[in-house]
Amino acid sequence: MSEDLNESNKLCSSLQDNVMTTLQEDMLPCVSQEIEVGTSKDIKNKVQNENNSIRPLQPSDSYNGAIRDNYIWSQTITDLDVLIKLPKLTLKPKDLRVTIETQRIKIEARQEHEETCNEVIKNLDWTTIFEGELIFKTKKDESVWSLVSGYISIHLEKVSERWWDALITEEPKIELNKIDCSRNLDEMGLTEQMKVEELMWNHQQKLLGKPTSDQLKMEEIMKKAWNAEGSPFQGTPYDPSIIKYN
């Protein structure tokens, strides 16, 4: 009788393994987009601690954003980064269902149960660990997510360049007059970058006592006017000493 019971338990255990393997392969979670983390050893070491502990927070994690109970967010004028705490460190991408829409984020995690032969299917229950309506729209096709130690990391691109005073509608607002509104050069458009570079160059020229870009443009105009028809200087060598830079 004991031998029959042991054999039955073995068959039950084998059945559970086979059922779960099949279900996990056929019912992988749907996601908007996902980044594979760990394809490079350098990247893996950077985002995941070897002792499988929670990744320590950095000042940049809440830059121009806030630290909340179960998530942290940061922003620049063009994008946002969100870290959402995982309920268990051992969760894998297949244990998560991440939905990122234009103005909404929803994350579900696979709920674990103690198994018996008749309760295997309950392992496919999903629990919502984060859900929120974003206060402004983002570019859905540009959103990506990945797993870091203890967190889901989500990157979002803003539809319009503006500072957000909260990530989701239910969240307390931050004071925008206290954030760092400075912008990195690489965050600006090409026209803005060229203008900033021109201003920096003009400042350097002034420090050296040399003409600025506007003064050089004026000098080019003066050269053309020097020999223009009707000019009193027509036919004489151009003399830049006549031009005074203010």
UniProtKB/TrEMBL annotation:
Domain CS: 66-168
Organism whose genome encodes this protein: Polistes dominula
SUPFAM superfamilies named in the record: HSP20-like chaperones
One matching Pfam family: CS
Residues of the signal peptide: none
InterPro entries: CS_dom (IPR007052), HSP20-like_chaperone (IPR008978), NudC_fam (IPR037898)
Stated name of the protein: NudC domain-containing protein 3
PANTHER family cross-referenced by the UniProt entry: NUCLEAR MOVEMENT PROTEIN NUDC (PTHR12356), NUDC DOMAIN-CONTAINING PROTEIN 3 (PTHR12356:SF19)
Top-rank taxon, per record: Eukaryota
